[in-house]
Design brief:
Elements lengths: L1 H12 L10 H10 L2 H16 L13 H25 L2 H6 L1 H11 L1
Length: about 110
């Protein structure tokens, strides 16, 4: 119950409004989801994904196709992993109704 209280206080402190499961495992996953290292990793992969525009054809500094493809697959895997992590934290009914999650899934597929 202390972890649940800490999660509620943290959400209030950082102005987050995420409905999450209240089981002990889900709360631990929620804390890990909001940890600064997870956010930093997400921002890193966003940066890598955007930087690929400099290295894919037509590019300023062209790299081999395989290198850019591997980097893109790694980025998509990270984004998908973050989405799955979020799905494990939130109730399924809420997760599938959230427009943001649907947009992320469509973006990954396309």
């Amino acid at each position: 119950e202390l972890l649940l209280a800490a999660a509620y206080v943290s959400d209030a402190q950082y102005n987050r409004n995420v409905p999450f499961e209240t089981s002990p495992q889900a709360i631990r996953l929620y804390h890990f989801y909001n940890h600064w290292t997870m956010r930093a990793a997400t921002y890193f992969f966003i940066w890598v994904n955007l930087a690929l525009a400099l290295f894919e054809e037509p590019a300023v500094f062209p790299l081999p196709f395989l290198v850019t493809s591997i980097a893109e697959v790694l980025c998509l895997t990270a984004f998908f992993g973050r989405l799955v992590h979020f799905a494990k934290v939130t109730p399924q009914k809420v997760f599938w109704k959230d427009t943001k999650n649907i947009c992320v899934m469509v973006t990954i597929v396309v």
